[in-house]
Amino acid sequence: MTDLTKLTIAGARDAMRKGDVTSAEITAACLSSIADAGALGAFVHNTPEIATDQAAAADVRIKLGDAPDMCGIPLGIKDLFCTKDVPSQAASGILEGFKPQYESTVTSQLFDAGAVMLGKLNMDEFAMGSSNETSVYGNAVNPWRRGNEDTALTPGGSSGGSAAAVAADLCLAATGTDTGGSIRQPAAFVGITGLKPTYGRVSRWGIVAFASSLDQAGPMTKDVRDAAIMLRTMCGHDPKDSTSADIAVPDFEAALTGDIKGKTIGIPKEYRMDGMPAEIEKLWADGTAMLKDAGAIIKDITLPHTKYALPAYYVIAPAEASSNLARYDGVRFGHRAKLAQGDGITEMYEKTRAEGFGPEVQRRVMVGTYVLSAGFYDAYYNRARRVRALIKRDFDEVFADGVDAILTPATPSAAFGLGENMDPIQMYLNDVFTVTVNLAGLPGISVPAGLDAQGLPLGLQLIGRPWEEAELLNVAYALEGAAGFVAKPAKWW
Ligand code: GLN
């Protein structure tokens, strides 16, 4: 029975349609794997009753013969998504006990298509972090281990629970969100595929907001085909999100021919960082060679403003976060501090926010408030916005010059140990290859491409033209085929 959890979305879809297996069976297998995997800390809230009901309903639809692709597929849902009547806390103490009265657009589209919710997944608090260590629930743990050590490694963040759950076969796939790398970095750390779509492709409605001009939800899956299938169900125009694009949704799976002959792949010289581990450098060179062997034209390109991306991101993201998080005031949602005699409304706000937000979230709110304050707005926030425009222009120029996709490493290292990266600046450096994509609003995908000397997965990132996820997925599909990454973590949990 446990083998059913190893199915891909495509494999499960085809097997269910043939009548070889039911959603009820796959769902039951996932629920039992989840019950067995408490040590991974991936799920923070299980919904077995909902899952069982949804699976039964999906089996009826599949029998009737015209079920959508995602029908009957058991998923984990990142805790950042509002799920109706089910705890949705963004892994924060301030949303303690919060059960939304509505469903996010993404989850409602998935459930309308028949997908099954196994539960809510761990993450960094309000999606701020790269290691899942800022979660109020405690961190999720990477199912992979370094050599024979039993050091607990991070699954990355912020979608760390999603990454751990998919890599450990607790669910067939998961939702993630990516503001500066939170889908692609954890995917790389656990050897799965993670896609951040073009900004505006997927509705943000009902997803707890972090930095609204950067946030985008996407699929975290076992392979590229599954990312194509799941993305199609997640996207589409939503009038409830003013930045949701009214643009046709192609059949991304149909685009997966694996033929990339004559496509131009750009290799940006600015991503060759000082002190980059030799293994990452080699992985990148190997990936380049694989795409070349598959018939692509390799072109050296320059994205000159890359070095300003991290500082610009760490001004813009906290600025937007400080504004978005102002709504958590102890009045409307979740936690409210116990007040002392004589406390007024100001004390209520202060105590609630001091108790409810963890240290990283407080740091971001303070940085964000500072860069938006009257005296510093031009020096920091406006300057960061101008830098952002230049970063976007770098990409526009490269794409106008005929580049179809850009290849870079996904992360500057393999997964690190929990507690190893406690300095915030050190932690922010993890996002060096991913934040540019969010600042420019582009689609990016991380594909597992190899193992390091210690046996840990490493990912490569492909960046595509806006709205051309189909093309991007096809290049990723070719890379996946050539890299032939099939390794799985040895079960210790
Ligand atoms: N690690 C980045 C941050 O902490 C990105 C987080 C994300 O993409 N949600 O802001």
Automatic annotation (TrEMBL):
Keywords: ATP-binding, Ligase, Nucleotide-binding, Protein biosynthesis. It comes from the Bacteria. The active site is at residues 78, 158, 182. Residues 25-473 form the Amidase domain. Its EC number is 6.3.5.7. One of its GO terms (cellular component) is glutamyl-tRNA(Gln) amidotransferase complex. Belongs to the amidase family. GatA subfamily. This is Glutamyl-tRNA(Gln) amidotransferase subunit A. It comes from Yoonia rhodophyticola. The gene is gatA.
